[in-house]
Amino acid sequence: MTQACIFCKIIAGDIPAKLIYEDDAMLAFHDISPVAPTHILVIPRKHIAGPAALTQADETLMGKMVNLGNDLAAKAGLQDGFRLVMNNGESAGQTVFHLHLHVLGGRVMTWPPG
Ligand code: AMP
Ligand code: ZN
User: Fold this and answer.
1) Is 98 a catalytic residue?
2) Which of 23, 11, 30 is nearest to 104 (CA)?
3) Which protein residue has the closest C-alpha to ligand 1 atom 20?
4) Range of the domain at 71
5) Does 113 map to a domain?
6) N or C: which terminus of the chain has fewer CB atoms within 10 Å of its end residue's CB?
7) CA torsion sign, 77 to 80 to 83 to 84?
8) pLDDT digits over 38-81, tens only?
9) How far apart are alpha carbons 83 and 73 in whole angstroms?
10) Residue 114 domain flag
11) Does any ligand 1 atom lie closer than 6 A to the CB of residue 96?
12) Which CATH number is 101's domain given?
């Protein structure tokens, strides 16, 4: 738990979120400011600042996060395609410094990303 971290506050139940899934290691909830018809965030309960802060000890957790992202995309009916995104650092668009996997879908995506 990091005091100022908004996602740690969601985990602690101090601020509300539209929860989709939770277990002893992870939570998934709807993004407050969706950029696609489906925009889900998968986060670990453990406070990790971002992808670059992952260590070997987090490899199993990372795998579980991706598997959960896939499951939630399937449940959301995104069989035509979806995007799993992790922004790392401010210039990549990271605004919350608690690891999170974006699950985006429900519209046609362009490449390269902005
Ligand atoms: P990033 O820009 O990759 O760090 O993504 C952070 C995401 O968290 C953004 O898409 C925000 O809209 C989302 N977000 C920020 N605060 C909340 C919140 N309280 N509940 C749900 N999503 C949030
Ligand atoms: Zn946190």
Assistant:
1) no
2) 30
3) 32
4) 6-105
5) no
6) C
7) positive
8) 999 999 999 999 999 999 999 999 999 999 999 999 999 999 99
9) 9
10) no
11) yes
12) 3.30.428.10
Predicted confidence at residue 114, as pLDDT, reads 87
- Average pLDDT over the chain reads 97
In the chain, the percentage of residues whose pLDDT exceeds 70 is 99
**Nearest in space to 39 (alpha carbons), one of 100, 107, 108, 102:** 102
Q: Give the end-to-end CA distance of the chain in Å, rounded to a whole number.
A: 32
Tokens of 22: 């939770």
pLDDT tier for residue 30 given thresholds of 50, 70 and 90: very high
Report yes or no on whether pTM surpasses 0.90: yes
- H-type alpha helices, the chain: 6-12, 59-75
Residue nearest atom 1 in ligand 1 by C-alpha distance: 94
Pull the structure tokens for residue 51.
């992808």
- Asked whether residue 1 is domain-assigned, the answer is no
Q: How many domains does the chain fold into?
A: 1
Q: Indicate whether 111 belongs to any domain.
A: no
